[in-house]
Amino acid sequence: MDFRLLGPVEAWRAGRLVDVGHARQKCVLAVLLVEANKVVSADQLMDRVWGERPPQRGRDTLYSYLSRLRRVLPANISRRSGGYVLAVEQDEVDLHVYRDLVARARAAGDPEQARVLFAAALDLWRGEALATLDTPWLVDVRRELQDDRWAVQLDHIDAVLDCGGHTGLLPALAGFVEQHPHDERLAGQYMLALYRCGRQADALDHYQRTRTGLVEELGTEPSPPLQRLYQEIVANDPRLSGRVAAHSVPRQLPAAPRSFIGRADELKALSAAMDAGATVAISAIGGAGGIGKTWLALHWAHQHLDRFPDGQLFVNLRGFDPSNEPMSPAVALRGFVEALGADSVPMDLDALAALYRSLINDRKVLVVLDNARDSNQVTPLLPGSPSCGVLITSRRRLAGLVTTHGAQSVSLDTLDLDSSKQLLGARLGSERISAEPAEVADILRHCAGLPLAVGMVAARATLSPDLPLALLAHELQDHAARLDALNPGESDLRAVFSTSCQALSSAAMTTFGLLGLAPGPDCGLAGISALIGRPAGLIMRELEDAHLVTQAVPGRYRMHDLVRLYASELGDPLAVDRLVDFYLRTAYAGDRLLAPQRDVMDIPFATQPFVDEAEVLAWFDVEHPCVMAAQQFAFGRGNYAVVPQLAWAMDNYLWRRGRWLDQLTTWQLGLAAAEQLGDTQMCAKAHRILGATFTRAEQFADAVSHLTQALTLVTEPLEQAGVQNYLAETWERQGELGRALEHAENALRLYETLDKPLRQADALNSVGFLEARLGRYEQARLHCEAALSLYGNGSRYPGAPGALDSLGYIARHAGNPTQALDYYKQAQTLFHDIGNTYEEANTLANLGDTYTTLGDHVAARQARREAIALYQAQGRTMEAERLQREL
């Protein structure tokens, strides 16, 4: 059963909602669930369900409610001496799972582990706890739970800050402080996040607003901790940045294997190679999967954590994943440098590798590269520091690493008979295997020393404790088919997997087959539910119990690639379209919240599943690899219409996060699909966005090529003007100001023929700014003032602060720095208010130059420091270095 209290009170069985009766009867169930596995007397139930106003014959009414609940939940509610008890496992009630996760999070010594556990706890909430139930006792419980939820939310924020996640927190914190203006702990968190994002002035301003509210409304000064934080921010105390240090000590290793048998010689070889400072490649004889490479690497790693006090990095390179492309070195490096605390992440592979080696230099870090395809995939991921240890697992011998990097190769063969028997005995118990020695020998013969196969047979037998091992051995003999490509020796892996699946319910079996086809490295519960068309929680628990899936993180499931290969043979590819549709609908709903002003696409999106932008970005952070894999899956199936739609739905997120490589990948695929469809309009959009992306990546030849092609395809004046604008930006960034002005003027002429005053204002500003760059200040001023007039006084339209910034530039270069300062201040305020930190950074840099001209060097330094912090957060290294030199 699955009982839910953190929202409406519900009971679920096998994926179906159980009718537990009317509201008062639900109150009885709720009381028993809150006190799960404890005896609750009839008097206590009466008091908690009705309070001081029980009905006539209240005890009889209570007994009738209990009788009905016992008929619905016969295995759970029982009569005990002194009352009633509802017997459940802890993980069957969301409230008790929540409390356990919170306790583990608060006890965790690692901020990253605490962050994950707090997030998993908060994810269990589906609304107001015990919703709609109104007895006095339950109302008090609900109030306590809501207070506890807020405390946990604040604990989670602390953990995210400790992990260096201040940038992503800001939107959510801004919303929280509006709801809780007098919460001093929250105020401190918001101030710290602002400060770490380079917004010292905003942090200090928030303190003053908080203090004013406390004094005027509550008659009290801020608490000493908040006052100390204020003083530290004023003084730029370096300890404030030091609190992020925990983020640069990654702890990425998956859990250690629960039972590890044998491999004594290999473990000694690993230790000897590490003692010699060598990179170690663990390969399998014959290239077999499931032979225990990762098992061995993780066991050794967990046994020697003391060697690597500066952390452990782990990545599954998916070298032989049957349904996904191998992970590119750039993607793996991005994850590593972010885990190591990089402030900015370059796009170029060589720059990424150089940054990675710099961050890890002289640190004692273990790097585990799992499931590598070949030496080329691994080489950029090797640290240059001899203080680091590297473990690589692959089905290949990776001879290139041995030759060029002096790697030591530790090859794994299958387990011998004694070790296989020990492994099976560790799972089933010595008594059970001693009772049927001949049958155990037959089972082990079919498993052929493959640890994965032994583990799966053991899981099957564990789930069916009354199943004779003789019957299991007989079942294995009945399957003649083989997983030919990955078959070690004479073992029959399909027989092993098929036997593991025989104990599954029909729903779990169907889900198993579909998961084998699901695109992406893993899948969340919401996605799995969409894939199978029903709630997936209980089904996934069944598959996890059978060792057919694992949870890499709470709520996200993955398969061993060998199991996945088998599962993929059982699933219906047509059903995966439901998962692709889920990703499209959800991603597009998020995109509409991130950018409501964008062109509307003909995509039916889900009822808004997100509360705010922060929640959208958090969803994309986790799911975007799966959404990209879904796009590739749709393209491979010939479902071309979905491919550019998915690119569009992801575009805003990828742009905000600066994931240029991913953006190029999605739109190149989108363009290929649009060409297959003969969709000229979509081809034009794809070329336009690819051109803009190549411009931001400073690959200008490709940018001009795509934008030129877009210009030949578009027919609508509005689309033509948009492409002209991007061409103007591309040529401007190359220093070709004359050519840039020609394109900007072309865009302006087109907008003047349309009823699009705001777009016309954008074009007027572009023309004016380029004229100013060319020294034509009077013409420039007239154009930019005309733009500002079209925007409207005090407009929050995204283009309005750009016009103010242009007017500041014109005034400063025309010899009027005081007027320039006024324009720049207005522009910076508006950019900040609308959340455009990209342009805010530029305006702050301009403010610094203007303050210098006016002789106010203190203000100039402050503006430049704030600009540098934003540049670094955005990965704009060249701009940050330029300003740093000026400082």
Describe it for me?
- The chain is α/β, with parallel strands linked by helices.
- Strands 7-8-9-6-10 form a five-stranded parallel sheet, sandwiched between helices. The protein has a three-stranded antiparallel sheet with strand order 1-2-3, with no helix packed on it.
- Helix 16 links the parallel strand 8 and strand 9.
- The chain starts with a strand and ends with a helix.
Through-space gap between termini: 63 Å
Using only C-alpha atoms, the radius of gyration works out to 31 Å
Helix content: 55-70%
- Quaternary state of the chains: single chain
Query: Structural class, please?
Result: alpha/beta
Give the overall pLDDT as a whole number: 84
The amount of beta strand, in percent, is: 5-15%
Spatially, the strands of the biggest sheet line up as 7-8-9-6-10
Instruction: Figure out the total of helices.
Output: 42
What's the shape? globular
* pLDDT < 50 stretches: 242-247, 283-287, 479-492
How many strands, which pairing sense, and closed or not: the largest β-sheet?
5 strands, parallel
The count of strands amounts to 13
